[in-house]
Amino acid sequence: MLQIKKQIPNLLTLGNLICGTLIIICAFQLQFVHVAYLAVLSLVFDFLDGTAARLLKVSSTIGKELDSMADMVSFGVAPALALYSYWNNELNQGFDEFNSVQNIESFLPYFALLLAAFAGYRLAKFNITEQSNDYFQGLPTPALALASFSIPLAAEQTLFSNELLNHPAFIIAYTVIGGFFLVSNFKLFSLKIGSKNKQLNLVRIAMLVACVVLIVWLHFLGAFLCLIVYLLFSLAAQKII
User: Fold this and answer.
1) Cβ(115)–Cβ(76) below 8 Å
2) What value, to the nearest 5°, has the Cα angle with vertex 108 and ends 188 and 181?
3) Model-wide pTM > 0.90
């Protein structure tokens, strides 16, 4: 019975890993609505495995390693390949093989793969750094991953968002700046509202309210903008984190 109890968090972590693999499959089939659902489910598993480990008091070294590997797949490789698949399909429509090689847009989707490289470095850094309950050092991989998963659906909402989110300058800026924040030393607050830092709790609540409003108002585009809101609130609150 004790052995089964020890494996519950690991099974939840494996659920996260399976969701990550399914995201990759759906992304290459251009089923981005399924990608969004699986991304949320993956995040739920990622939350539950740590919660279960704490409640059952069965944390282990193998659980930590497994969690890191699952996060790499679901929040590192999966978003990178989802964006690669989406941008490759959007930018290279109408080009034959000869023209696509010569056209610079055929190379732009590969910028998305930088997110996987930055995420790998960020997770390795996370594993060897002492963590605080109030903040993350650098952008958490799930935050950038959820924004990435929302891009294909946000781009289909309006003509303006389509042109913006598929523009070469946006693709380059998003992957490079997003990757930079992953490996940066900026303190970005966690969403644990029950911490002892009362000022930070108010900032967290304000940010969450802003994000809810954005999602209700702008749907998937709002979900993407939540990343920018999170970064702005965190950078503005550096003195109290």
Assistant:
1) yes
2) 10
3) yes
Q: Which residues, at least 6 apart from 83, have a Cβ–Cβ distance to it below 8 Å? A: 109, 112, 115, 148, 151, 152, 175
- The pLDDT value recorded for residue 1 is 56
Q: For residues 67 and 14, what is the distance between their CA atoms, to the nearest angstrom?
A: 8
Q: Are 120 and 138 in contact (CB under 8 A)?
A: no
CA distance 107 to 217: 34
Q: Domain 2-236 falls in which CATH fold?
A: Four Helix Bundle (Hemerythrin (Met), subunit A) (1.20.120)
Closest by CA to 86, choosing from 52, 64, 111, is 111
Confidence check: pLDDT of 94 > 70: no
Are 237 and 197 in contact by the 8 Å Cβ rule? The answer is no
Q: Is the pLDDT score of 230 beyond 90?
A: yes
